[in-house]
Amino acid sequence: MERGNAGAFGEVRDSRPDPLAFEAGDWRSRVIAGRRTGAAVSIPAWLATSYSTLRAQVLDPAYPCFFGTIAERRGEMFYSFVNGKDTCELPATMQTFATLASQPQYRRNNLAVFFEPDAQPLSHSAYRELFWAILQQLHDVDPDARADEQPDPMEEAWEFSYAGVQMFVVCACPSFRARRSRNLGPGMVLLFQPRSVFVDTITNKVIGREARNEVRKRLDAWDEIPAHPDLGFFGDPGNLEWKQYFLEDANVPAGDRCPFLKRMRQTHERDHAAAAANTREEEGA
């Protein structure tokens, strides 16, 4: 699927965050807001409650994704937040995270983006539309030129990426009832997991199927519904990553068309340049 670039967030400057020492025992030191981190960030009052809810659930011994449990316990998580629905800082936040995730010491870190809880939780379909709109807007302003050359989401090789970092994305929101593993608090939470998280740092190989199958078994025990039929493993024949990002609360397969539309910025720029050149040639003839 393809679409033209619609830079809803505006362009993002390519600047790198200053080297910082993040404290494993202090979650506030690992908060990112645009180009700011830690003490430089003004944290909203509602964030502490949202974070505490996520932490309590993820650290439960029975929580299905022990990768997330280990990351939270070791302080290998970064956090960010969105007040209301104001996502204007999110592209800069994502670029800061991508820059950090590209460094060896942070290659196993995830990013949790907390959204301010709504006075009344939205419907499941409303959260779905919001989720895909945010991913689309991020993709449309991705500063990495290679974003124009990504596979189509309907191809097995596609994974969401930003600033050159491929990431598996999980949307958790209050509208999940039976699928408890996807309800992490009073507001929507987006979890961005770089593909490096799933690679063993010693063998440099993708974490074994046995470990991933164990997560599926734990899901069956934690959730009030069997694992969703769209869940699969990256690279397996027939597996499509986008179908796993936002699940239904019932075991209903995702539709046949991905809501995410691959941008065509470079193609459009080339076409525009070619048209302009043709016009100049015709005017000079």
UniProtKB/TrEMBL annotation:
InterPro entries: Uncharacterised_YqcI/YcgG
Protein's recorded name: YqcI/YcgG family protein
Organism of origin: Paraburkholderia kururiensis
